[in-house]
Amino acid sequence: MHYLCKCSAVALALAAVAAGCGGSGSAQGARVLAAASLTEAFQKVDPSARFSFAGSDELARQIREGAPADVYASANARYPDELFAEGLVEEPEVFASNRLVVIVPRGNPAGIASVADVAEPGVELLVAAEGVPAGDYTRDVLADLGLERALDNVVSNEDDVRGVAGKVALGEADAGFVYVTDAAPVEDDVAVVELPEGAQPPIEYEIAVVAGSENAEAARVFVERVLGPEGRAALERAGFSVP
Description:
- The chain is α/β, with parallel strands linked by helices.
- The protein has two domains: 12-97 and 204-237, D-Maltodextrin-Binding Protein, domain 2; 100-193, D-Maltodextrin-Binding Protein, domain 2 (3-Layer(aba) Sandwich), CATH 3.40.190.10.
- Helices cover 37% and strands 20% of the residues.
- It is built from nine helices and ten strands.
- It has helices spanning 2-22, 39-45, 56-64, 78-85, 133-144, 161-169, 180-183, 216-227, 229-237; strands at 31-35, 50-54, 71-74, 93-97, 100-105, 125-128, 154-158, 175-179, 190-193, 204-209.
- Strands 2-1-3-10-4 form a five-stranded mixed β-sheet. A five-stranded mixed β-sheet has the order 7-6-8-5-9, with helices on both faces.
- Helix 5 (133-144) links the parallel strand 6 (125-128) and strand 7 (154-158).
- Helix 2 packs antiparallel against helix 9 (229-237).
């Protein structure tokens, strides 16, 4: 009897370990399609998830085309809401917000002191492409400020905001529009120029479980972590604001 009790105790201990490694409380293996600006924060939330970071528009396209995915996190509300209306994701939730800024390479060779300066002749400007949330926010800001002529200075429309930040940090352009969270990883190589008061667009991030996910349990665990204290702390450390 004593031997059987010992065996039962060992079996229970092993079962507990197994549950901790991949059971109901684990997001391990969840396939997370997330906006490029979430790279650092989400990897801190759960390193065991399988991430694909890109422009939110590209990731929405992949979901529409049936790419394997369990969670979708976008840098805007538009794409998750569209996918929800199409029955492709469960109801999205807002989990973070961000700010748009202008960055310039170290030394600021073009002398960019304000957003208006990016419209000056000869300035080489980088922006995210149309359809990419950061690119759409940028175009809205320029239109609101009467600076649409700055788009004539664009030398490259990048696939995601990380492309803008990386190239400006390397000195491949005079300025670029990025989220403040994307300026942080390259802060040693860039300077930040803030938008004028009142020009900041509302930038809300939404997250949703993909409908028909083959790993729905892990997907919901991941979403719960993002919305919970652990996720909120990771997002705030990366420079996001949380609800």
